[in-house]
Every structure is written in structure tokens, then in C-alpha cells.
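During the reporting period, our protein records have gained a C-alpha cell line. A sample record is set out beneath this paragraph:
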Amino acid sequence: MKVVSSRDFNQDVSHAKRAARIEPVFITDRGKPTHVLMSIENFKHLTGQTETVVDLLAMPDPIDVEATRSDSWDRGETR
């Protein structure tokens, strides 16, 4: 298990994210573990969340967004 101080984490988040792909990374504050960074795959496995093909294909109903015209964006307007 990898342990990173909060200071080191703040200075190099990318390094911690790369390490978290392999194993959970414990982030410490004054020597005490306060947070855990892990990949989404590890999180889903830990919580038992699984996605089926049906879940992936299911899409929420489309949102009907009514376009509004603002005169300030009219291309013909001059200032």
C-alpha cells in the first residue's frame, strides 16, 4: 500500500493518480491517514457496483432545451 503526505499529494497529483491505478493510495495529514485515493474500478469492485450492457445502453430521456435568441449575440448588430 502506498502512503503519500498531503503536501506531496498537492505537489504531484498526477503521480498519486498513476499509483492509485495499481493500488489504493493513503494520503496522510501530519502522519495520520485521512483519505484514500483509488481507481474507479477498485471502488466499484469494493462497493459491488457492476454495470451491465443494458445499463450502458440505457440513456436518460433527452432534455428539451428551448433555444432563446439574445439580441446582443445578433451578428448584424454593431456597436
